[in-house]
């Protein structure tokens, strides 16, 4: 983790130097940066799902075959958290990833409109489709974990979570 922190600091310094020199970066750089942010958020979300499953399967990270570092990772804090808190954090990250996808869809729609006026337009929908599919895949994994943990969550929290899940899926389908 220290190595990652050092590399991140070095890369941020290099990015600041390039920005200072060039004042702006090409659009492809910003698009690539956005893709990397999305994939990082998706990986973090998948990690949350695995943490939830590990917390449900074993007693607080002390089960055989678990190294304990999974639940005590920097993403979740030093001490293992209880299941409802972990699930709420995962749902919040799912909603943030959904917002990134919807933003990208909105940008694509706007570029399509501008193409009618002669602007350049990349019609390739494959990256956008891949984003949607990977987000829906993680959505269903998280939904499955929530349903499996429904007895630990309680009726009120479960209904709120299911409402949030329905909102995520319906907004993705509608847009």
TrEMBL record:
Organism: Cochlearius cochlearius (Boat-billed heron)
Record's keyword annotation contains Glycoprotein: no
Residues of the STAT transcription factor all-alpha domain: 89-149
GO molecular function annotations of the record: DNA-binding transcription factor activity
Any GO BP: signal transduction
Gene that encodes it: Stat6_0
Keywords (A to Z) from UniProt: SH2 domain
Record's protein name: STAT6 protein
InterPro entries: STAT, STAT_TF_alpha, STAT_TF_CC
Source superkingdom: Eukaryota
């Amino acid at each position: 983790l220290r190595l990652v922190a050092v590399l991140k600091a070095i890369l941020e310094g290099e990015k600041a130097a390039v920005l200072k020199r060039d004042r702006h970066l090409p659009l492809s750089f910003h698009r690539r940066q956005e893709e990397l942010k999305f994939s990082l958020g998706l990986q973090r979300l998948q990690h949350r799902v695995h943490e939830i499953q590990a917390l449900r399967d074993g007693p607080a990270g002390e089960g055989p075959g678990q190294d304990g570092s999974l639940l005590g990772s920097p993403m979740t804090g030093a001490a293992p958290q209880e299941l409802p808190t972990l699930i709420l954090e995962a749902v919040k990250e799912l909603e943030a990833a959904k917002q990134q996808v919807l933003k990208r869809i909105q940008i694509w729609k706007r570029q399509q409109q501008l193409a009618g006026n002669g602007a350049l337009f990349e019609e390739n929908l494959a990256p956008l489709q891949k984003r949607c599919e990977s987000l829906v895949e993680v959505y269903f994994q998280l939904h499955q974990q929530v349903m499996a943990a429904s007895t630990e969550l309680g009726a009120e929290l479960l209904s709120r979570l299911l409402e949030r899940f329905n909102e995520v899926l319906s907004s993705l389908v509608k847009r």
